[in-house]
Amino acid sequence: MLSQITRNVLASSVSVLLKQSLRETQSRTWSRAVHISQYRGKKNDKNDKPSALVLHAFANIENKERETFLDILRQYKNNNEMRRGHVEFIQVALKYMDEFGVNRDLAVYKSLLDVLPKGKFVPRNYFQDIFMHYPKQQEVAVHLLCKMEHNSVMPDSEMEDMLLNIFGKHGLPLKKFWRMVYWMPKFANLNPWPCPRPAPKDPLVLARLAMNKISSVDVQTKITEFKTKDIEDAIDNTWIVSAMSSVQEELLQTHSPNNPIFVEGPYTVWVADQCIDYFVLRGEAKEKKNDYENPDDVSDIKIPFWDKKEIIPAPTVHEQSDGTYFAMCATGTSSKDSLLSWIRCLQKTNPILNVIPVVFKLSSSMKDPLYIDKDENDDKNEIVQRDNR
Questions:
Q1: Which is an annotated Pfam family here (predicted)?
Q2: Given a cut of 90, is residue 215 above it in pLDDT?
Q3: Distance CA 176, CA 160 (A)
Q4: Integer Cα distance of 152 and 188 in angstroms
Q5: What pLDDT is recorded for position 340?
């Protein structure tokens, strides 16, 4: 009887304890859930500003200068201590660097790289290392270094320390940095046509650099600058940069007056990041005589000691398979009238141009080409429209 009473008391106490523990567990879980919801819904003056508004700051700014770009970076760092959305922010910043004119500024690249938090992306074990720990962050850092390489910006040792603190010594951005440090000094001064940095904006200066670049194949090329206002009946008031060598003048003197020469273009040449249009004065290609001789024919053996052979000079660099190039030019307006003024200027030093017909074949909306012809009864040259029907 006593054992049964004891058993009943113990069973009731155990059931009470189980119910109490279950209530405490439920209350704790509910209180924890309420605490988490309150924590997530907690307002913070420094982090309540969404990062999307900061991303649109690059497009909404009026004065797109270096200082305003740096101000946006400082605002993002100060108002976003958790650095949320840093990958998207760097991608948008890289997109607008050209508009702000900071694509060649090393300090701006450092300040943009400083947006990434330090130490968080460093791999802690071997498996994190081989599986590319935080791939998006590493890719955006590599894109930043690629943009530096595209704009010929050489990184320094401070950027190496920053990459080491952000991604560790096994990260892909640090390996990209080491490749840049090795290769960029080797290719820095290999351009045979150097251009000042930043590139000039004056079209006349760019035209001179472009003509020097194109005509560098012949060291005897002379760059001459003309003004269309010195030519009578000229409509356009602009400049002309012409390139012509003494070898080209000799080729023009030996050209047949019955065969026309052509003014063709515009063609495109790049000077740094600037594009320049130029035109060429070209003639037809010379015919090459290929006399076939059978090397096995011994019926007429020639003794080379008494034979006088004619020495055929080798073709010059201006005589190509598609034609003979006599001159090149770049004008300020790239118009037909400026090209006509160019031919007038060349006629002063090359009188044979008064006899040779010059045909204008320009890539424009003009359907029928124009050419210069000389009338027998008139000493003045005039533009004649050719009928292509």
A1: ECSIT_C
A2: yes
A3: 10
A4: 8
A5: 93
- The 3-state DSSP class for residue 334 equals coil
Question: Which residues touch 158 (CB under 8 Å, ≥6 apart)?
Answer: 110
- pLDDT, tens digit (0-9, with 9 covering 90-100), for 352-373: 999 999 999 988 544 444 445 5
15: its two tokens = 């059931």
DSSP assigned state of 359: E
Among residues 288, 276, 382, 260, which one has the least CA distance to residue 330? 276
SS3 89: helix
Burial grade of 186 (CB within 10 A; 0-12, 13-18, 19 or more):
exposed
Are 339 and 359 in contact by the 8 Å Cβ rule? The answer is no
Rg of the chain (C-alpha set): 38
- Tracing tokens 């040449």 back to the chain, one arrives at 269
| Domain regions of the chain by residue span | 52-188, 203-286+316-362
Cα–chain center distance at 210: 17
CA angle 265, 389, 353 (to 5 degrees): 45
Are the C-beta atoms of 108 and 97 separated by less than 8 Å?
A: yes
pLDDT number for residue 222: 95
Map tokens 């440090």 to a residue.
181
Q: Under a CB-based contact definition with an 8 Å cutoff, are residues 171 and 163 in contact?
A: yes
State both tokens at 226: 């003309």
Both structure tokens of 305: 């000691």
**Identity of residue 27:** S
Joined tokens for residue 167: 């991604």
pTM beyond 0.85: the answer is no
Q: 168: phi > 0 → left, psi -120 to 50 → alpha, else beta; which?
A: left
CA proximity to 138, closest of 179, 177, 181:
177
> Tens digit of pLDDT for each residue in 288-314?
766 666 777 777 777 767 666 666 778
Taking only the tens place, the pLDDT of each residue in 100-129 is 989 999 999 999 999 998 888 888 888 887
The two tokens of residue 240 are 């002309």
